[in-house]
Amino acid sequence: MSDVTFFFGGWVPILRILVMGTLAYGALLALQRIFSSLQPFSDNGCEAPSVGSASPALLFYQGNWQRDAMRQERITEHELVGAVRQNGFGSLLDIEAIIMEANGKLAAVGKARAGDAGALLNDPR
Would the pTM count as exceeding 0.85? Predict the structure, then answer.
């Protein structure tokens, strides 16, 4: 009966559990950080709200992709082209700008309706 320990077998097993648990928790946090950085683009269609974004973002303007803004808003070209189709346009040649509004919705503005582009560039003319 002296060979069997029923409750407390020493500090080594307890310390081993604490160390392994801490390492496992750290590994899970590191993996979560890695996988979230590998998935920079949204998967929820054309409505991809940017967390904490309080102002509209210009994502496409006069035939040019605004790559820095697209990366910051985590949106792909495919999602922008989908927004063009949803807004009733057939070609990017008809588009002056694509804007992600503060509420996360994508707006495609045609060249015929762009005017002087003051509202597109947040320039209150």
Answer: no
